[in-house]
Amino acid sequence: MSFVDGEIPKAAKFNDLATKADLADAVTAKITELSGYQIAASASADVAAQNSQVAQNAMAASQLAAANAQSISDGGTTYATSAAGLASTTSGQYFRVPQGTSSETSFIYYLNNAGVALAVAQQVGSSALNARFNLSTSKLISSTQDSTGLPTLVQDELGGLYLPGSTETVQAQLSRLKKNSSPYLNLMSDSNSAVFNVADEMGGISIPDLPGTIQSNIKRNQEQLLNLIANRQVYDARDAGLRNELGDRNEFILNNLAATVSANGGGVIYVPKGNWGVIKPILPLNGVSWVGDGMDATIFRPMGSLSAFDAESTAAYLTGCVFSDFGIDGQDQVTVTSGYTSSIKGMYFQFFKRCFFNRLKIINTGATGLGIDYAYDSTITNVITENCGRLAPAADGSPGASGIGIGVGGNLDEPLYIAGTVNRNNKNFGIFFEWQQRTNSTNHSRYTIVSGNTCTGNYGGLGDCGLDGLVAIGNHLCGNQYGFLLNTGTLVPTSDGRPAPGSRGIFQGNDVSRNVLSGIKYDGSSVAGAGYDWKGNKIEDNGAYGIEMTMGSNGYSDAWIDGNSIARNQLDGIRLVNGSVTNLDITNNRIFNNGQNTSTGGSGIVLNASVTYGSISANKLRDTQTTATQKYGIAGTGALTSIDIAENHFVRNTTTPVNLTGTQTGVTFGRNPGYN
Questions:
Q1: What are the tens digits of pLDDT across the range 274-296?
Q2: Residue-wise DSSP of 62-82
């Protein structure tokens, strides 16, 4: 008798057997044949077809001599091991037949009620599975195999299930998913076979150490939001009647809602997606926040010659507000009868405290996009400004007209953090600070940090026109007319010295490259600044000077230019145009391949201002090009007093390494390779 591969084994047919001896032989042969099979999931259709005949022979099989039965005991269960044992095994029980001479491997069969013997498992010893399951100690009872004979699932004496490559049971892996006892429909494991994601029978997703499912946590957050709404802390502007995007009295609806929210103790006004025209400004109030659907979804469109948001004040702070996830498009703003005015902004605030401006997009405004003055403990992050100041008649000749413009001087301390903004193609500055009030100190204001911003396509990328101790770190100031400007800003200087170039600032780790004119420009010809450090910046490929300093009739004190890469600028790497400087150090810079403008040329360092007390040391003054363009390493006509020039390295400057023609008093030259 033979079987097709994969066919479910069946009990022997007894109807053709003449004697009990023949029957016993047939049973023995059948058991031998069954030993070549392993798992049978269920009886196939042809098994059912023979059930009738098998039932007729069941009685005959049961009459075989019980004396011939042979059995063994395994874990308290008795299994038949011979034909006689098969004959004495009643239906509904299991029996086991060893496979060949192996002491570890045998087949386990089940005799169903119809007398059909079904192979249900192959018992494999642990040593046969170690290689695939990485096991060594568990006592394995049974396993299943794939078509190649390799084990695919094993079970130990305690019911633990193992999957290939695992070092612990499935149950142990599931036990790490805490606080979730639902039946598991699906699970995922990490590279160490530890379960990290389980779906229960209701579709709930659980991850380790998270109480409850992900869905239940989201639901709880939604319930908290609904609770805020129920307590009137979140207000939908549509509930107040906001409907018409064209601007028919939208500002009245929004301002009335803001007054209600403020009277109820504050809250959030949600403005949905839409292009909401406003003819007059929205008036921010303390504790009232404005949140939209996204900077490109919820758009406020000022339609006159005023700002979209206006919170002007002489002294009182606007406090505790968030402005987030909306845009302002000033394409419909127009000038007043008398012409351009700096009030045609996107947002116009004076005196704001603990206010947060985040994920805003302000474009096409007539004057400055985000024009807010006199900050305190506030942040501006992830803001985009573009084409702001479009109505201003001229760059660097009209007030404001910038992307982000911060008026300073309302108080001595005005902490403000600006980060992650993008400011492009604005008429004046991408970002600038302008000293507008004179209170408490001659330099305003302190504690401003500008980090990680991008300013490109503006007249000036970043402008410090009156801060005391600006910290500017890690900004991209590329592709403007000037990368970084220190001057009097966009206002006419007053008799009390406002505005003025910033003082005591730290300008570090910025990229100030590929600007049309100079990378860094200081202009103190009207009002003097002092005390700046320029350290570790890339100042390369600019259309004029790398660093340009004009003092005029005013002096400058305490300048430190250190550790910068100043390369391939069209004119000089560093140029002191005129005036006087005290306490100047130019150290550790790499100044090379400048003077790219072949008609005018340029040098490494040019000192046409008088310099008193300082050093020029440890700079690398080189030209590495095939055709050198950097004329002198150090040159200039300014008078020098108490200056140390040492440890500079001069390589391939086109004329002479040093050409200083001004009066020299107490000037010392130390070791300068390439010069002496």
A1: 999 999 999 999 999 999 999 99
A2: HTS-GGG--EEEETTEEEE-S
